[in-house]
Amino acid sequence: MNKLLIASAIFALLAGCTTTNNPPKSISLFNGTNLDNWVIENDAQFSVQNGVLKVNRGTGWLRSAGVFANFTLVMEFRFLETEANSGIFVRTGPTSNNDENGWPNNGYQVQCMDIITGKAPLATMIPYGAPPFEHQSDLAALAKAYKPLGEWQTYEITCAGETLEVKLNGKRITTATSIMNRQGHIGIQAEHGLLEFRKIDLTPMPQSQQ
After folding, report:
1. List of residues 6+ apart from 108 with CB closer than 8 A
2. pTM here?
3. Which listed CATH number (3.90.550.10, 2.40.30.10, 1.10.8.110, 2.60.120.560) goes with 25-209?
4. What is the pLDDT of residue 209?
């Protein structure tokens, strides 16, 4: 084996070790102090108090300044009133419907409403103008994962290529396929509800897992 081939082999080995030993770092999208790197759309009522992001009724949405493709998003939230209503947008375009609500018109929503039965319960998927997709939810798992009003809940939302997965408090609730929007903004919906968020962390996915 000549020196060039040996050098190439060593470089490939080192590259592999670097990928394994240095996984992508988590990005904190909410700094606990203000709404830097976020954009309030359509006069929605969002604010930061005592280290938490508050949704104070109203309509519209809060949009991340950046766009993201393949990632795992971890969010901690709690409902402050029965059936408080909101939603988490992923891979969503920056434009909104021109109506009284002003919600996005090209994206995907993970339902974030304090209900676990009915047409669109917590941790299920709702299309918001994006191309059609397939999705299914385990409502038995949802009933086990749900925490009562006022307790902190955790979403883990993973987008990888054309698939999307939603976990609530560690249990997988929803899987979706044929996701055509391959990147977009993260967002939080204002839909007349009272909620709080205290953690919004995003971890980009390694190329090998996309």
Report:
1. 89, 90, 91, 92, 125, 126, 127, 128, 130, 133, 164, 176, 179, 181
2. 0.87
3. 2.60.120.560
4. 66
